[in-house]
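Bit of a strange request maybe. I'm writing a small parser for structure token strings and I need a real example to test against, not something I typed by hand. Could someone generate the tokens for this chain?
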Amino acid sequence: MHLQSTKRLENGVEMPLFGLGVYKMTDRDETISAITKALQVGYRAIDTASLYFNEIEVGEAIRHSNVPREEIFVTTKVWNTDQGYDNTLRAFEASLKKLAMEYVDLYLTHWPVADKFVDTYRAIERLYDEKLIRVPGVSNHHSHHLEQIFTKANTAPAVNQVEMHPYLSQQDLRAFCAEHNIAVTAWSPLGRGGVLTDDTIQALAVKHGKTPAQIVLRWHLQHGIIVIPKSVKSHRIEENAQIFDFELSAQDMLTLDALNQNKRFGKDPDNFTFDI
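Reply from user aminoacidic:
Good idea to test on real output. This should exercise your parser:
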């Protein structure tokens, strides 16, 4: 594996295993600087959302980079208040305009809003059929949400982006997704920093001469999980990507797997009031 390694999705599209998340990047210059730095380092995936209010900056940074658009995998998402079939189509049009792009690589339902998320995904399917997106997907969907989508969808989601880290290993959901050829992306792969002080993770960092964050990110990759760590700091953007020059042993992986507590730092999709 290397920084630009990809995962072949169910429809044949190659999705980078490693990318930059831009959640909570609200300062214009800081956002553009972070994306520019990431692209310079070699990142080839940027993950945004309408909720992040930085799609304009994402588009601007990509246009002004020296990297061709077709080499960058761009993800955005439809927010909860814009869900439903017609609303999702309108929300996508607004996102595409802000990004100033002709297409989006991956479009996701941000959260499974009750009574709406199936129709929302049907709209995403239409965007896929019309070749306005290269990959249809969802975010924060449990297996029972996916099963509801399967009953109506002609094309199953190719990606499910969920909270995942050593304290929330999502083993059952990962197995379900693997069974249905759905790639898993981890948001908050470092548990919002909450796992980095763990004694076991710190001991493995010492063992390998790496930082705790690098240990955790490598754990994700060795499980076949796509990661999108967020940082606005140049040295962190570089550091997070320096995980391809070592390998965790099978025992290391088991040790990290054993840290699971089913602990969330974000919201549970089944107990979320969608009031962010």
